[in-house]
């Protein structure tokens, strides 16, 4: 990763916004409340407070031809107030690559903004929160991968997309939560190195048992590592006693015993789609084993009344970006908010991402 001087997010209310008429604010507040669909937390008064920010962000985006991408775990004011594209990391890397706009603002953690730069090096990629890391991406360096490669010469190396550009530059292929099983099983030979997620690696090891040996690393997502199979079993027992047919949906960054207890395993976007589908088909009792942003999106995107059971966990890195940071980065980005990567790193990392696109489609 290039050297950055991390700066703290702007305190709320510290940025002077443009002034808008009462009618403009009211119309924007109504639009926001309607789109976010969580009247308890995002009532009209709250929406009025953020309306000047979303109005100016949307104005600057169209004036400067900026494509604003937000990961599903960003807060609803960003997702439904200003984003042009919202999804999981696989879909968003394609959205960044294919966007005709020459400037992309990526509201998410750092590795996703770096990925956008790798797949579209000629574009300007803005990342409003340089301090937003990820425990998986921060668990491994390029040097660690080089050591593994020299220990296991000739063994293909797959890395989860939650890694720095420098790590991607060292591996044969990248994978995401949408395609790690399919891609890893298609790699040549009977062994592979999988970095850095030990929990996803455990699941992959079980999936490939008898076909391929998986050499794992020891990173983990601190959010998804908190969930246990035991918790799910106890919720299943409690809900079954009340006659509830609980559907458990989990993200593949969870431990293998969580995955074994789950009805559906998938990316942030796949879990949202599946929860909505289950609700529409008459299974409204759903336990989501993932970050809280997925539940926010489900609430916003379905008319069906769902009973979301259990507690989600919030990713502190994903929640670092605020509308103020986005507005400030659009008005006058600080150097650390513009993604700059070494040309050689981009060239080598783009090969592992291209290989992912090839094997995933
Ligand atoms: P998705 O690709 O499923 O959105 O996952 C990214 C991530 O960081 C999950 O913690
Ligand atoms: Fe990283 Fe986990 Fe946060 Fe996703 S949820 S960005 S994997 S720390």
Can you tell me about this structure?
By secondary structure, the chain is of the alpha/beta class. It has 3 domains: about 20-130 and about 320-335, Rossmann fold (3-Layer(aba) Sandwich); about 135-220, NadA-like (Rossmann fold, 3-Layer(aba) Sandwich); about 225-310, NadA-like (Rossmann fold). It has 15 helices and 12 strands. It has helices spanning about 20-35, 45-65, 75-80, 90-100, 110-120, 140-150, 165-170, 180-185, 200-210, 230-240, 255-260, 270-280, 290-300, 325-330, 345-360; strands spanning about 65-70, 85, 105, 125, 155-160, 175, 190-195, 215, 245-250, 265, 285-290, 305-310. A 4-stranded parallel β-sheet has the order 2-1-3-4, with helices on both faces. It has a 4-stranded parallel β-sheet with strand order 6-5-7-8, sandwiched between helices. A 4-stranded parallel β-sheet has the order 10-9-11-12. α3 (about 75-80) links the parallel β1 (about 65-70) and β2 (about 85). α4 (about 90-100) packs parallel to α5 and α5 crosses α15 (about 345-360). The longest helix has 20 residues, at about 45-65. It binds 1,3-dihydroxyacetonephosphate (13P) and iron/sulfur cluster. Iron/sulfur cluster binds near residues 109, 134, 135, 221 and 222.
Fold topology:
Layout: H1 22-36, H2 44-63, E1 66-71, H3 76-81, E2 85-87, H4 89-98, E3 103-107, H5 110-119, E4 124-126, H6 142-151, E5 157-160, H7 165-168, E6 173-175, H8 180-186, E7 191-195, H9 198-208, E8 213-216, H10 229-241, E9 247-250, H11 256-261, E10 264-265, H12 268-280, E11 285-289, H13 292-301, E12 307-309, H14 323-331, H15 343-360
Parallel strand pairs: 1-2, 1-3, 3-4, 5-6, 5-7, 7-8, 9-10, 9-11, 11-12
Helix pairs in contact: 1-2, 2-14, 4-5, 5-15, 12-13
Bound molecules: 1,3-dihydroxyacetonephosphate (13P) and iron/sulfur cluster (SF4).
């Amino acid at each position: 990763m290039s050297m950055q001087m991390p700066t703290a997010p702007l305190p709320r209310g510290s940025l002077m916004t443009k002034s808008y008429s009462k009618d403009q604010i009211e119309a924007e507040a109504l639009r926001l409340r309607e789109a976010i669909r969580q009247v308890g937390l995002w009532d009209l008064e709250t929406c009025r407070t953020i309306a000047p920010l979303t109005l100016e962000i949307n104005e600057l985006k169209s004036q400067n031809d900026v494509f604003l991408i937000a990961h599903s775990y960003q807060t609803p004011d960003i997702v439904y107030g200003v984003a042009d594209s919202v999804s999981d990391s696989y879909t968003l890397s394609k959205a960044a690559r294919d966007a005709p706009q020459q400037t992309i603002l990526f509201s998410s953690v750092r590795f996703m903004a770096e990925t956008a730069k790798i797949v579209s090096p000629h574009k300007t990629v803005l990342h409003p929160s340089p301090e937003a890391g990820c425990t998986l991406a921060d668990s491994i360096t390029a040097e660690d991968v080089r050591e593994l490669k020299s220990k296991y010469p000739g063994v293909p190396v797959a890395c989860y997309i939650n890694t720095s550009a420098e790590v991607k530059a060292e591996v044969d292929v990248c994978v995401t939560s949408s395609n790690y099983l399919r891609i890893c099983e298609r790699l040549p030979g009977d062994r592979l190195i999988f970095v850095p997620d030990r929990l996803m690696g455990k699941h992959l090891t079980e999936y490939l048992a008898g076909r391929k040996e998986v050499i794992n690393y020891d990173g983990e997502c601190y959010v998804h590592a908190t969930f246990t199979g035991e918790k799910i079993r106890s919720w299943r027992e409690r809900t079954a006693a009340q006659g509830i047919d609980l559907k458990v949906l989990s993200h593949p960054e969870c431990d293998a015993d969580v995955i074994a207890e789950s009805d559906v395993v998938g990316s942030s976007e796949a879990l949202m789609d599946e929860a909505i589908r289950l609700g529409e088909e008459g299974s409204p009792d759903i336990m989501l084993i993932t970050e809280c942003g997925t539940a926010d999106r489900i609430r916003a995107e379905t008319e069906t009344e769902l009973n979301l059971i259990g507690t989600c966990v919030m990713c502190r890195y994903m929640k670092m970006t605020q509308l103020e940071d986005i507005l400030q980065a659009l008005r006058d980005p600080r150097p650390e908010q513009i993604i700059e990567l070494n040309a050689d790193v981009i060239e080598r990392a783009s090969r592992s991402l291209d290989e992912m696109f090839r094997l995933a489609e």
